[in-house]
Amino acid sequence: MNVNSLFQPFSLKSLHIKNRIVMAPMTRSFSPNGIPGDNVAAYYQRRAAGEVGLILSEGTVIDRPSSSNDQNIPHFHNEALKGWEKVINDVHAAGGSMGPQIWHQGVMGNHHSGWLPPVPFEGPSGIQKAGVTNGKTMTDKDIADAIGAYGKAAADAKRLGFDCVEIHGAHGYLIDQFFYEVTNARTDKYNGKNVAERSLFATEVIKEVRRQVGEDFAVIIRLSQWKSTDYTHKMAKTPEEMGAWLNLLADAGIDIFHCSQRRFWEPEFEGSDLNFAGWAKKLTGKPTITVGSVGLSGEFMAAFAGESSEPSPLDELLRRYDRGDFDLVAVGRPILADPEWVKKIKDGRTTELKGFSKEALAQLI
Ligand SMILES: Cc1cc2nc3c(=O)[nH]c(=O)nc-3n(C[C@H](O)[C@H](O)[C@H](O)COP(=O)(O)O)c2cc1C
After folding, report:
1. Looking at residue 355, which CATH number applies to its domain?
2. Which of 47, 136, 264, 332 has the fewest CB atoms within 10 Å, i.e. is most exposed?
3. 1 pLDDT higher than 90
4. How far apart are CA 239 and CA 268, in angstroms?
5. Sequence-ordered strand ranges (E) for 115-249
6. Are the C-beta atoms of residues 130 and 88 closer than 8 Å to each other?
7. What sign does the CA torsion over 200, 205, 211, 213 have?
């Protein structure tokens, strides 16, 4: 396994990273009352010292009263920003690069702890999933204020010294609730008959983020076709639909598409082995990040249910990367469980690689 090609630098606007490996954003819920402390800074600094090229933070919520369903998920506003300033300073001191993943959960299921935000969840239509309502329909003012809060978070990311920002537009949270026909039942301009027509909220968020950070700051968006209620779902059913959708987002100001799959090797459309990141790059010409079971035998949703994974070879990933399908490779659980994972890959220490089991979630290793 020759991994040298993954250890080439990558630069785009404000982002200058030493290799192609990205730590995938992973919620850890170790920030009491939304404030990331020294333990969170040390966790990210260990990944920087372990030579992760770009660290994407766990989802960190924007300044809306019901943007989170969990008291221990970090905020990206007000008091919490001091904590994030320490995070980025410590990551830079260890030679790493980092961007926060800015997040609004929209209409979610309640957290198992029973904690609830002070006001009801908000989303395009209050719909959590087919037949289930768990929040309110956003008014025009709610929408404008949420867009402003994304912009403010991005501006704060730049001001604190982060290298880029990632907008969370995937996995059934607020932006994805606008994209998805099941959770978007609006009768106004924020709905439409296909995913491109349901992208107005996303493009307004992206434009505001871009306005706040200027042209030279790298802006990433994370997207997924799959839903946690339907892994096989495709909002864009053809390359044409996908091109119309993604090019709207690119025109609004996206620099890099982070294409979430549970297994990176799964083809996006029949008749080609290209995955989501491969198609996104081909259709937009923008750099893309792939993700999903890189270096592990099993995928992450099954891991939450208790299935363990073993280390697996990177040959298929390298074949696609060396073919030019995508520019960056995000790795989740292996880097959550082992801050040295990247170094071990670089040095060929494959016998030292560990698998993943959900016990790793219990602490910040
Ligand atoms: C504990 C955990 C928390 C996660 N939290 C987030 C999150 O906050 N935002 C996000 O976009 N994806 C999140 N994900 C998904 C990961 O970013 C990644 O896409 C997924 O784990 C697949 O990568 P892997 O197979 O390398 O683990 C999470 C995954 C795990 C395991």
Report:
1. 3.20.20.70
2. 136
3. no
4. 9
5. 122-123, 127-129, 132-133, 136-137, 164-168, 218-224
6. no
7. negative
Check: CB of residue 35 under 8 Å from CB of residue 20.
no
Among 61, 10, 30, residue whose Cα is nearest residue 326: 10
Cα–Cα distance, 147 to 139 (Å, whole number): 12
Predicted local confidence at residue 163, as pLDDT: 98
* 3-class secondary-structure state, position 68: coil
Sign of CA dihedral 185, 190, 196, 201: negative
Mutate which of 225, 297, 300, 304 to test ligand 1's pocket (most atoms within 8 Å of Cβ)?
300
Of 260, 252, 214, 208, nearest to 235 by C-alpha is 260
Residues contacting residue 274 through CB under 8 Å, at least 6 positions apart: 267, 268, 282, 325
Contacts of 57 (CB under 8 A, 6+ apart): 25, 44, 74, 87, 98, 99, 100, 101
How many structural domains are present in the chain? 1
C-beta of 333 in contact with ligand 1 (< 6 A): yes
pLDDT at 290: 98
Q: Is the dihedral of CA 303, 309, 314, 315 positive or negative?
A: negative
DSSP characters over 290-331: EESSTTBSS-HHHHHTT--B-B---HHHHHHHHTTS-SEEEE
Note down the domain range covering 68.
Answer: 4-362
| CA 264/CA 331 separation, integer angstroms | 11
Q: What is the pLDDT of residues 246-299, one digit of tens each?
A: 999 999 999 999 999 999 999 999 999 999 999 999 999 999 999 999 999 999
Per residue in 113-143, pLDDT tens? 999 999 999 999 999 999 999 999 999 999 9
Q: Is 171 in the pocket of ligand 1 (CB under 6 A)?
A: yes
* Residue in the structure block whose two tokens are 């978070």: 153
Say what the pTM is. Answer: 0.99
